[in-house]
Amino acid sequence: SHDTGSAFEAIDAPEDAIILSSGTWSLFGIKSKEPICTEASLKANFTNEGGVGYIRFLKNIMGMWIVNQIAEQENINFIELIKDLDKSTYRETFDVNDQTISAPKNMKAAVLNLLKNNPPKNDLDLFAAIYLSMAKAYKKTCDELEKVTNRTFNYIYIVGGGAKNTYLNKLVEKETGKKVVALPIEATSLGNIKVQMEAK
Prior knowledge:
alpha/beta, 18% strand
């Protein structure tokens, strides 16, 4: 299967868990026994994808694309920078799904434009704003998911490269009120192998 489908296969999560495949993009959703094709799910922009004995009901939202683009553009080692993010008191946020940052020529300039009313003073504040904005986007999507499915979820299982980002994981836990279970594993590879073994 493709990367998201394989990643979902690798996760043995309880029924009250949301799965977040966190990489360049964020795939946020659940394993559903059947498709959810309501007007509400359409308006919230959720999709139904066929899995092995279940449906992946999920939404595609912005992931590490913003961070990766700015880090490359500005030659910033964000792995080192992230260690100091707790020192930032900057709490401005923006819509990470804004079309102006989907594929801009200059990502930093595009993000700063969305924060122009109260711009960050430095890169530390800028990255703090990005991560907080991502966490709030997950919160919004979580609320939408619970409303559309008429269910309550207690956990968010995170796989992919973003699972290693402890700073973001803490923000997600704080914003959503859900227990975050980070699985920094090669979920795509494991899920792919799992399906192949079961098919024999």
